[in-house]
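ZP: hey, is the iron/sulfur cluster complex queued? I don't see it on the tracker
AM: it wasn't, my bad. submitting now with these inputs:
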Amino acid sequence: MAKNEANGITRRDLFGLGGAAAGAALVGGLGLPSRLAEAEEAPLPQVPRRTLGKTGKSVPILLLGGMALEKKFDPKIAEAVRFGVNYVDAADCYLGGSSEAGLAAYFARAKNRDKFWVTSKSDKHDPKAFEQTVFRSLEQLQSDYVDLYYLHGLDDAKYVSDDLAVTVSRLKKAGKIRHFGFSCHGGNVVELLHLAAKTPWVESVMFRYNFRSYGDKELNAAIDAAHKAGVGLIAMKTQGAEAGFRDAWQKFEKTGKWTKHQAVLKAVWADERISAAVSNMDSFEKLRENIAAALDRTSLTSAEKEALDRYAMATRPYACDGCDHLCGAAVAANVKIGDTMRYLMYHDAYGEKGRARELFAKLPAEARNLSSVDFSAANRACPHGVDVAGLMRRAETVLA
Ligand code: SF4
């Protein structure tokens, strides 16, 4: 059994502290706030923390993704906070609009809103609509404030505007939001990180970052610029998951003690410029697995890093970076290749079939009409050799 030197516990010890047994105990105590408080205060090893850039606040390196929490009360939150994971990442649009209400249900029962760093997000990019969403989030969260609020899914630098700066400043002065940032999934992440570096009121950026990103010089230069400017960087999509995932998954070779989920998180945490990684943990098992990886301070061995590199290469043709300004321009139809690939990833890799279909259904009709489009030029345009045509066919089958 591997011994966790930093904390003097074995992984079995750690697993014995949480998991199904703890979940059952907490579920059994749902009506008893004092029992939750007791559970949360038990002395346990704590996940390391880092400063989130110019916010100056310390956050755990592992963050609870709001997309995998229960829509009502979620006992995984109580389990996570016992290990110091007290940052929850919600959004107005997650779980069909229920992620914030689920958190409110937790706080109402546990009576501990002040112990948590809560983020939420608006996918409305117009300043007025953004502000309205902030107020809706506060109502859903039943809270007077949100610690950090993101403009979600930013895909165009024009939305980081003077008007938005005024809105953000007003919301901060009124105490509604404490910090502001934006999240981005798309292929213009390099441009957006440089923009954040030049924009003093952008305090944090959430962006796609994982073991596939290391060799990307432009991305690394943009991360350096943002980090040096004090932008708090949070990695998402850390699993580097692939559309058409089922076959790709088999290519990961376990060379050391870590599972693939753990190895890819440790690869992200090895980059000190990144404050934290957000992870959607939809079971006690995943929560335990990720906490165990965070508590163990040892780095990946060279053999483990090489195995990840081999996995990255073997699965590259399945992994889409969302840079559809490249492949989309080659197609004579108004399709959304990056978004469609992401929804396919949610479906295939995350197992979030309902959500993937819901998101796909929100695309304009023309973007959903994939069968009439010839994607062969997109295949040729993709620098990573992604089989766009094949994956769009699959998307139409499973998402439509
Ligand atoms: S298919 Fe290729 S070019 Fe198109 S968005 Fe994905 S990675 Fe970028």
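AM: back. The chain has two domains: 3-308, 320-399.
ZP: great, adding it to the tracker
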